[in-house]
Amino acid sequence: MNNKILTLLGFASKAGKLSFGAASSSDMIKCGKSKLIVISCDISKKSKKEIRFLSDKHGVKQIVLDTVSTSILTNAVGRSCGILSVNDSSFASAIAEEYGRKC
Question: Domains, the chain, ranges and CATH?
Fold first, then answer.
């Protein structure tokens, strides 16, 4: 279902336009560099709640990939993570657009 989204995330990773993990993503949100937050389906409720609160507070859109586990996301981007920050507006808009088509 999310093959194109995973492909776009892989390209963004290779281009150096992602931040990996909750702490790094939070930092990017706080400093205004994050354009989109991507959350896998199997992260803890606490982590999901914290990142969503911070995203909402700073006006950063977030998407939850309901059928993508952390291991699938890790394979797509090449680093172990369940939360990603997309720090490029072009990649963020392409991923959000594809997510909107799939849902």
Answer: 3-102 (3.30.1330.30)
